[in-house]
Design brief:
This protein is of the alpha+beta class. It has 2 domains: 143 residues, 60s Ribosomal Protein L30, Chain: A; 161 residues, Phosphoribosyl-aminoimidazole Synthetase, Chain A, domain 2, CATH 3.90.650.10. The protein has 10 helices and 12 strands. A 7-stranded mixed β-sheet has the order 7-9-6-10-8-11-12. Strand 3, helix 3 and strand 4 form a beta-alpha-beta unit. Helix 2 packs parallel to helix 3. The chain is globular. The protein binds adenosine-5'-diphosphate and magnesium ion. Adenosine-5'-diphosphate binds next to helix 1.
């Protein structure tokens, strides 16, 4: 009998899901990507996903505010819709409430929900409210729409790998919080991440041939492995190309912190990681420049099946292990 720890999060999901035998005939995608996908009318797909945040695993009540927690709970779910190139439309919210939680805390949590719903034009259309013996938890299910769907599968050798925004900020922010440090930008990126819904919209509306996409929730390398496995390809990324915020570089330099582990394996950046053939790059850069959002090439897809390698500053190359990102077990 396998133990959950031996299976790991993804082994466990695979084991449980491979036993499910009914698959709806109109499903475009079921388990295994950021969202499940099915057609709703000609040329339109619905994309759905769910995400849970559990006290002391995903957040600590002592280091966040209820408003930020509300924004984050919705943002991480919206990020999965963005990862498919979709537009979020509706959310359902389940709360597990222990005794220590007050009404005023929940009012503030909902003011955070409200902010994200207004910002992204998403309706909070229902949910469930239950008692929880110890930990506070929030589960958010989200439904979105897409005209084009970008999946993890489809990256081809020679495609270029891009990422929106910067890497490692959230992970460094979390480390600071755990040491009772404070840095408004870095801790803010952890407590209150931005789902890249607008950026996904730019990609979806463009004619760019996006061959694969995922959002970075578990760390760059682990999520790039998800693309490589689904697409049966490898990837090479370059240490020098990984985008860092000025705040991240300054903090690492000033405090003798090695940036690389945060850049490669730091989770919860919620940036989009995607691939496209080289002939789409001009168009990509033009669209992102116009929208004033950062997008950076970090490497390319290779033939070397299911391996992610890093070319370091000194020119040496090493294969990166898959499992240093976030895994619940
Ligand atoms: P993400 O990090 O994008 O939220 P996950 O890594 O949580 O995605 O999940 C990977 C895939 O496994 C997704 O397709 C998700 O829907 C599916 N999944 C996760 N947990 C379960 C579960 N308990 N039963 C069935 N499918 C699951
Ligand atoms: Mg995801």
């Amino acid at each position: 009998m396998s133990k959950i720890k031996e299976l790991g999060e993804f082994g466990l999901i695979h084991r449980l899901s491979s036993r499910l035998k009914f698959h709806a005939p109109d499903s475009v995608l079921g388990i295994g990507d950021d969202c499940a996908v099915y057609p709703v009318k000609s040329g339109t797909y619905e994309v759905i996903s769910t995400d849970a945040l559990v006290e002391d695993i995903h957040f600590k009540l002592s280091t966040t505010t209820p408003e930020a927690l509300g924004r984050k709970a919705l943002s991480v779910s919206l990020s999965d819709i963005a990862a498919m190139g979709g537009t979020p439309k509706r959310v359902l919210v389940t709360l597990g409430i222990p005794k220590k939680i007050s009404v005023s805390f929940l009012d503030k949590l909902y003011s955070g929900f409200n902010e994200i719903c207004n910002r992204y034009k998403v309706e909070l259309a229902g949910g469930d409210t239950v008692f929880s013996p110890k930990c506070f938890f929030i589960n958010v299910s989200v439904i979105g729409e897409a005209k084009r769907v970008f999946t993890r599968r489809g990256a081809k050798p020679g495609d270029l790998i891009f990422v929106t925004g910067t890497l490692g900020d959230s992970s460094l922010g979390m480390k600071l919080l755990s040491k009772k440090g404070n840095h408004k930008f870095l801790t803010g990126r952890h407590l209150d991440p931005t789902p890249r819904v607008h950026e996904a919209g730019i990609l979806a509306r463009s004619r760019i041939n996006i061959t694969s996409m995922i959002d970075i929730s578990d760390g760059l390398v682990q999520d790039l492995y998800h693309i490589c496995k689904a697409s049966k390809v490898g990837a090479r990324i370059y240490e020098d190309w990984l985008p860092q915020s000025p705040e991240f570089s300054r903090f690492c330099n000033g405090n003798a912190i090695a940036p690389l582990p945060h850049l490669l394996n730091g989770g919860e950046d919620y940036e989009l990681l995607f691939t496209l053939p080289a002939d789409g790059v001009k168009n990509l850069n033009r669209q992102f420049l116009k929208a004033k959002v950062l997008v950076t090439q970090i490497g390319e897809i290779t033939l070397r099946s299911k391996k992610v390698s890093l070319e370091m500053r000194d020119g040496a190359t090493k294969t990166l292990p898959e499992s240093e990102g976030f895994n619940h077990f």
